[in-house]
Amino acid sequence: MKKLPLLLSIALLSFLGCKDHAKNETTNEHATHATHHDNNALSNSWVKDIQLDNGTKWNANPETNEGVTNMLRLLENNTPTTLEDYHHLAKALNTEKNYIVKECTMKGASHDNLHVWLHPLIDKIGTLEASKTPEEAQPIYKSIKENITAYHTYFK
């Protein structure tokens, strides 16, 4: 009976030690993920991975095309200069991105290639929304514009 409190204490200390270790791992994962976001925000390396459909554009569902058209319109109608402008644009782009994701009915290789195009864009929009200064936001905005503009190179 005297060993029970000792065993409970050891078990509790072990559990708390594991919890702190898991917290540190989570913190490190968030730091790594944030760095990954920053690197992807300026990169358009996805163009090396995307493919055409035997030399022609992929057919996309109408809702995806509509969402991309709305994104292009947002970019054409906005010339952000302040941090608030960039954040407002990021939120509007995010709304359209969510519509594309929710309404996507594409399957197979066309769907896979859409994701090659879309995943970096998701990172870029999130990074733009989290930007701290207009100087930080401007190159991210430019990269987003290049990403969205390239859509019609690969999809119809």
Automatic annotation (TrEMBL):
Keywords: Signal. Residues 1-22 form the signal peptide. The keyword Signal applies. This is Superoxide dismutase.
